[in-house]
Amino acid sequence: MIWIVLAIMIVATIILNSPTIKGMIGEKSVTNQLNKLNKEKYIILNDVTIPSSSGKTTQLDHVVISTYGIFVIETKNYRGWIVGDEKSEYWTQVIYKRKERLYNPLRQNYGHVMALKGLLSEYSELPFIPIVCFSFRADLKVKVSSEVIYTSKLVKTIKKYNQEAISASDVKQIAATIGNANITNKDIKKQHVKSIKLDISNKRNKISNDECPKCGGSLVLRNGKFGQFKGCSNYPKCRFVYNSK
User: Fold this and answer.
1) N or C end of the chain, less CB within 10 A?
2) Rounded to the nearest 10 degrees, how much is the dihedral formed by the CA atoms of 107, 112, 115, 120?
3) Strand ranges of the sheet holding 128-134, from the earlier edge strand across to the other edge
4) DSSP codes of every residue in 63-95
């Protein structure tokens, strides 16, 4: 009986530590926070997949539409120190002495905003407010001016934007446009995940072959303040850098 219990605990630990499950937990936590907003003032859309300008699709964790603006929310459920700045392509997750890289979520969310702008191009000068939410498991050490916050601060952050900029009728139309464009087909969503993984794999292959994944130039070894790194030979036209540490 003890062995059965231990086996169940091990399997449960593996499942709970999987990136997919951790992501779902993080998104559910944000959804619970968003449900505290006044439904008469805010329209909440969760897990939205829409076409992007590249002809592919992009998945948005949460979109909140209101007369105060369109809030585009990216959720992260990482633990440990999260270190990074506004312009870096990658941030660093530090757990004790182990370091892992993660794609800058501000850049990721910028892509989401651009996809929404393309979808809502008939509207001029819509105010978009990108927000990146980290769970309490993280210890944020980032140097940014953008909204990078803990999930517990989400509602407060949204409410601080209180200047009306969109009419109530447009809010409903915008929500309907996004809702109608939302791709719910599971096969297409699976293809979206495969596409992301393929892009990451192609990028890694190019870097390993000393090819810049951004412009196709050559990557050369350079010395920087924090050690050696690979940078694009087409600098300053291309500012791609890669640090394997």
Assistant:
1) N
2) -130
3) 42-51, 57-66, 69-76, 128-134, 147-150
4) EEEETTEEEEEEEE---EEEEEESS-SEEEEEE
On the 0-12 / 13-18 / 19+ scale of CB atoms within 10 A, 98 is exposed
Give me the domain span that covers residue 123: 15-184
Pair of tokens at residue 106: 């501000």
Asked if the structure places residue 176 within a domain, the reply is yes
List the structure tokens of 213. 């994944």
CB of 117 closer than 8 Å to CB of 126: yes
pTM: 0.71
Question: Coil, strand or helix: which one is 68?
Answer: coil
Q: Which of 77, 71, 60, 76 is nearest to 37 (CA)?
A: 71
- In single-letter form, the type of residue at position 102 comes to L
Question: Does residue 118 belong to any structural domain of this protein?
Answer: yes
Residue 8, domain member (yes or no): no
Cis status of the peptide bond prior to 236, with omega within 30 of 0? yes
pLDDT tens by residue, 129-168: 999 999 999 999 999 999 999 999 999 999 999 999 999 9
φ, ψ of residue 112 in degrees (nearest 5): -65, -45
How many other C-beta atoms lie within 10 A of the C-beta of residue 42? Answer: 20
Which tokens go with 173? 């139309």
